[in-house]
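Translate structure to sequence.
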């Protein structure tokens, strides 16, 4: 039986690359994204394999409806990938940035919870399946000018660990993936060097391997893992001095 895979943020970037990777291997994919017209393009390329759901990951009723529809039509998913995410530069001193803070947290943290929630009971009952959360190396330490994004990814890492422990022994695995830089529209606006950056297709290929191994926690690429862990253990006085004048991601609207 072909794999049944759910991917959020599947209309572009990493989510599209992940969806395409599984589709090329014959999987049945539930593609969640706001831009329904792009999902239809994917569906036309892989007829009969794609269930398209145009929705926002902040909209729990829409997600619950889509999840129930997919389970009825295709079955309980083998893999659910909570990939949808947003990033924008933020500074606390500007009141107008508060809306961006709210949206980043809603999408990057609660969006993962809302994507997983409708599937957990069915996966528990089946005693199988893998829940995959896409976090980020940016969650290892707070990055200047990216306070909302760093905070959201740190929260995602902790949430996914809690969920992993909650589901221990149930047959449902939780995989946390922390990418470094990936060539997507989200990173295209970054005004600074991005070491070890990967194409979305290559990043997806490596992530799928980690999912197949059911690795509890992984950083992709591994070089960014070394950098991230090194920064994590730097004393605050040294970290602050090194990053106080680092370039910031542009502020803006989401």
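Result:
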């Amino acid at each position: 039986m072909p794999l049944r895979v759910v991917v959020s943020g599947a209309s572009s970037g990493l989510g599209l690359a992940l969806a395409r990777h599984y589709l090329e291997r014959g999987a049945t994919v539930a593609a969640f994204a706001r831009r329904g017209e792009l999902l239809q393009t994917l569906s036309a390329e892989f007829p009969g394999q794609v269930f398209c759901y145009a929705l926002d990951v902040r909209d729990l009723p829409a997600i619950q409806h889509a999840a129930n529809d997919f389970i009825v039509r295709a079955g309980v998913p083998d893999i659910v990938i909570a990939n949808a995410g947003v990033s924008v530069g933020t500074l606390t001193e500007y009141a107008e940035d508060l809306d961006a803070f709210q949206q980043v947290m809603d999408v990057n943290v609660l969006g993962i919870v809302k994507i997983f929630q409708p599937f957990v009971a069915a996966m528990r009952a089946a005693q199988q399946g893998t829940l995959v959360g896409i976090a980020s190396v940016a969650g290892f330490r707070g990055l200047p000018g990216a306070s909302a994004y760093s905070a959201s990814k740190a929260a995602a890492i902790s949430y996914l660990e809690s969920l992993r422990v909650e589901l221990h022994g149930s047959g449902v695995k939780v995989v946390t993936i922390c990418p470094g830089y990936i060539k997507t529209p989200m990173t295209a606006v970054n005004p600074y060097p991005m070491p070890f950056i990967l194409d979305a297709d290559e990043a997806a290929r490596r992530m799928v391997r980690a999912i197949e191994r059911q690795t509890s926690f992984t950083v992709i690429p591994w070089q960014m893992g070394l950098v991230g862990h090194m920064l994590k253990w730097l004393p605050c006085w040294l970290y602050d001095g090194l990053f106080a004048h680092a370039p910031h991601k542009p502020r803006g609207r989401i």
